[in-house]
Specification:
This protein is α+β, with helices and mostly antiparallel strands. About 20% of the residues lie in helices and about 40% in strands. Strands 1, 2, 3, 4, 5, 6, 7, 8 and 9 form a 9-stranded mixed beta sheet that branches.
């Protein structure tokens, strides 16, 4: 069911500073910031060749990332995103297997313009998992 690792997401308290670190210190190619109001975040993507690193900061006080940063003020790994061929089939399979899909259970459009879902971290060894339709 899983395809490749699409990205590793890192929550950061200051997106501009994190972008400067990746672009300056590490010499990485970093995308322009993209606000995603539906998800409550602003993101950039760092291209590392075989996958991407997503740096995300809260967009508004009620962002889910704000809560994460309250517990982890310096930031940290937030989630892993895996590609799937058919997000509805993957969701249905996972729900039958007992996995919890966060939110309404209906896919939202993610930063890449493709449908995404998030899976409860308690069902995946403490790791928040995002599925993105390839």
């Amino acid at each position: 069911m899983l395809d490749r690792l699409n990205h590793v997401a890192i929550a950061v308290p200051d997106l501009a500073a994190a972008t400067a670190t990746y672009a300056g210190s590490l010499g990485a190619k970093v995308s322009a910031p993209q606000a995603l109001p539906e998800h409550g975040v602003t993101v950039v993507f760092v291209d590392v060749g075989n996958t991407k690193i997503e740096l995300l900061e809260p967009l508004g006080a009620d962002s889910p990332i704000a809560g994460f940063l309250a517990k982890n003020p310096s930031g940290g790994m937030h989630h892993l995103c895996y590609e799937v061929d058919d997000i509805i089939a993957a969701r249905d399979h996972l729900q039958v297997a007992g996995a919890r899909v966060l939110g309404s259970g209906e896919p939202k459009i993610g930063a890449h313009g493709k449908p995404v879902l998030f899976l409860h971290p308690k069902d995946f060894q403490g790791t928040l998992v995002e599925l993105e339709q390839a």
